[in-house]
Amino acid sequence: xxxxxxxxxxxxxxLALTAITFAFTMRSLFLTWVSLSAxxxxxxxxxxxxxxxxxxxxxxxxITLAGVAVSQFFIKRQPASTEDxxxxxxxxxxxxxxNRTVTLTEPIVDGVGRIEIDGVLWRLRGDDAEAGxxxxxxxxxxxxxxxxxxxxxKLAKYYVQRSGLD
Length: 166
Hints:
By secondary structure, the chain is α+β, with helices and mostly antiparallel strands. It has helices at about 10-25, 30-45, 55-75, 80-95, 155-165, and strands at about 100-105, 110-115, 120-125, 135-140, 145-150. A five-stranded mixed β-sheet has the order 1-4-5-3-2. β4 and β5 form a beta hairpin. α1 packs antiparallel against α2. It is rod-shaped, with a radius of gyration of 29 Å. The mean pLDDT is about 80.
């Protein structure tokens, strides 16, 4: 029986290089095993170009599957960092304070400030305001979950009146 398709060593090495590139970018352990398997099979084919395609694929599959199986049992996932957990907890707390009016204890300068609400320190982003002014919390920055979007209370009231939301 003749080979209907020949997989050469350079094709295995190209697969290995592609897989390891994606493994690093996507942080994928599976693609790391694919890369290792392709490297082993590519080296085997380089040493002996007469290895049948089905045998190449069988070796490739066996190494990949064995590596993935071993990884599942022996490599433990890292728990999320405490910093990530704190950000998620803050985001959950933020839903309770949206649309709330608070008094600034520190000014908002150049669009950036800070405030402590219910024992949690928040960074603020919004209109410049002096300490003692009333501000309304409009939402949370979607990329930085510890940043509240705020505006001065009188501007918020004006917006509500103009839009007919009250």
